[in-house]
Write a structure and sequence with these properties.
Layout (H helix, E strand, L loop, with lengths): L1 H31 L9 E7 L4 H16 L8 E7 L4 H13 L4 E5 L1 H11 L6 E6 L12 E5 L4 H11 L5 E7 L3 H13 L6 E7 L5 H10 L4 E3 L4 H4 L2 H11 L3 E5 H6 L3 E5 L1 H16 L11 E2 L4 E4 L1 H6 L6 H6 L1 E2 L3
Length: 334
């Protein structure tokens, strides 16, 4: 009887080891792409600095770009999407998490998220792709294992639009975040070009989203003729609250991309952020598949822009849309 029990125990142990080895063998096949297992999936960590229309469109376009390049989500790649909620500490933690996960690629949507990803990726030399960054050079994201797309604002187009809709306007108010490189750069461009169109710029800087509506009150008290929005994340994040104040005061706001105009800005000269994201996704696909390294792909800037008009918002403020603008612009009123 004792010998029989020993034999049964030995058989059980052998069976356990065989099953264990088989399980390990299955894991190895799946992770290495060997015959009999699932193909390797790239892990892409996407860090979005906050949630608003233009950044959401960048992410949507990015995934479309990967698809256009022939990469299928769930088959060729998996996405770990994280939202930093406009918090720099969260953006830093997200980048560190992607590094700990050994992501194959990090994507930073907006400057602060891109910087956080780049800092976290450096030790492991993980490639980083950015998008929705106005001034990559000023943000020191133009060298190293990083590339992406820039959304330099069509400031001259915006000034032309404001002059066409408000022929008698003198002063344009702008709220911007002093620590956001994109916004600081855009303010300098506005100030450089404004006099060519007979405008002066009244810019009020903020350090956090909580200060934005107070800055708007300051501009309204200064008697500005209109406000022009940048793609400043702190400002765009509370656009609804801004429009409540400016509509009550009868002051028009001009947006810098289509989603802002849909929300109630009277118009805007802006970029197509879906297209910006697609361009970014196509670049990312080259890096993922080994077709090119980040160092081989200088960052790209989209310069073509469209005109957007919200005729309902304009009518509420007594602004007449010139016929040539109405024919050229995309209507955003619901």
């Amino acid at each position: 009887m004792m010998n029989l029990l020993k034999k049964l125990a030995a058989c059980g142990l052998s069976l356990t080891m065989i099953l264990s080895l088989a399980a390990c063998g299955g894991t190895d096949d799946a992770s290495s792409g060997e015959s009999g297992g699932e193909p390797v999936k790239y892990l892409i960590g996407i860090s979005q600095y906050g949630q608003h229309g233009s950044l959401d469109n960048c992410r949507e376009g990015f995934l479309q770009g990967l698809e256009q390049a022939g990469l299928v989500e769930g088959t060729d790649f998996e996405v770990d999407y994280q939202n930093a909620n406009f918090d720099d500490n969260q953006a830093t933690q997200i980048g560190q998490m992607f590094s700990a996960e050994d992501a194959d690629l990090m994507v930073g949507i907006a400057t602060n998220s891109a910087i956080a990803c780049f800092n976290a990726a450096e030790d492991k030399d993980i490639p980083v792709i950015f998008t929705a960054i106005t001034d990559p050079v000023g943000a020191h994201l133009d060298a190293g294992n990083i590339t992406g797309t820039s959304d330099a604002l069509p400031v001259e187009g915006q000034l032309q639009l404001i002059r066409a809709l408000q022929p008698d306007a003198d002063t344009i108010g702008i709220v911007y975040t002093t620590s956001e490189a994109n916004s600081v750069y855009s303010i300098s461009v506005y100030e450089e070009l404004a006099t060519d169109y007979g405008f002066t710029i009244d810019a009020v800087g903020v350090t956090s989203q909580a200060e934005v509506t107070q800055a708007v009150d300051t501009l309204l008290s200064h008697g500005v003729d209109c406000l022009s929005n940048l793609t400043d994340n702190n400002v765009v994040g509370v656009l609804g609250a801004i429009l409540e104040k400016t509509d009550e005061a009868g002051i028009p706001v001009y947006g810098s991309e289509v989603e802002q105009v849909k929300l109630g800005c009277v118009g805007g000269a802006g970029l197509d952020y879906i297209q910006l994201g697609i361009q970014t996704g196509l670049m990312a696909a080259k890096v993922l598949t080994g077709e090119a390294a980040c160092e081989d792909l200088p960052y790209e800037t989209i310069e073509n822009y469209g005109l957007y008009i919200n005729s309902d918002a304009a009518a509420e403020l007594g602004i007449t849309i010139p016929d040539d603008i109405a024919q050229e612009a995309q209507e955003c009123a619901e």
